User: What shape does this take?
Amino acid sequence: MDRITREDLRALLERGAVTLVEALSAAAYGAEHIPGAVNVPGEVTTPLATALAPNTAGTVVVYCSGPACGRSKVTAAAFERLGYTDVRVYPGGKLDWVQAGLPLAGTRGAAV
Assistant: This one.
């Protein structure tokens, strides 16, 4: 799996050319997440992956809380095992996003 920068992720989001996945708990996702992200708090099953990203050749970007969190890599690897060919990890995660002054969605919004 490849890494993706914040700038490249923003470009994909603006074009609507990505399935953005937050690999944190449902509570963490509900509180705050990058706008446009879907939540995968646990195991990535074939039915779940297909529902979220039906095109296995489409771009899937996975993130979690920040560089110290390894959940994004585990979730990205699961998408790859299921046959997804363009899976990337945004290693900076929510921490990098907020430090860049970008907004979050959810019940807490940008109040981090």
About this structure: The chain has a mean pLDDT of 94. The first strand starts at residue 2 and ends at 3. Helices lie at 6-15, 26-31, 46-52, 71-81, 93-99. The first helix runs from residue 6 to 15.
